[in-house]
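Feature request disguised as a bug: please show the residue count (131) next to Reverse transcriptase zinc-binding domain-containing protein in the output. Example input:
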Amino acid sequence: MIQHNPSYNEAKTLINSDLDCHWRQEHPQHNSKDAIHKLSRAEQVTIFRLRTGHNRLKHHLFSRFKIGDGPNCPCGANRQDAQHVLQDCPLLEDARLKYWPKPREINQKLYGSALQLGITAEFIYASDLTI
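Example output, currently without the count:
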């Protein structure tokens, strides 16, 4: 019987492959084709925070941590959340028209192509909102 002692690089490859296999089994919902992976780290964080609702918009800060004077948007709407900011806020209407001359569904803005996600991140940066 011939024993083969793997080199450092071979052992590292085998270990990483095993870890990757276990990770994929534990995370079957992971979508490696999600366009978010093509964005810069800062853009990824912005989109992720908008998708999950764990952000610094007034609704989340107030409802989760009781920070601020309430969940209302400065425009007077009941909730300053991602849906409101990206789709409805009258204070951001001009910026929305600049970035999306044609109306877009929220799904396209948060789950679309890398280009669409990049536009969403740019819109947030231009709006001076802290996400």
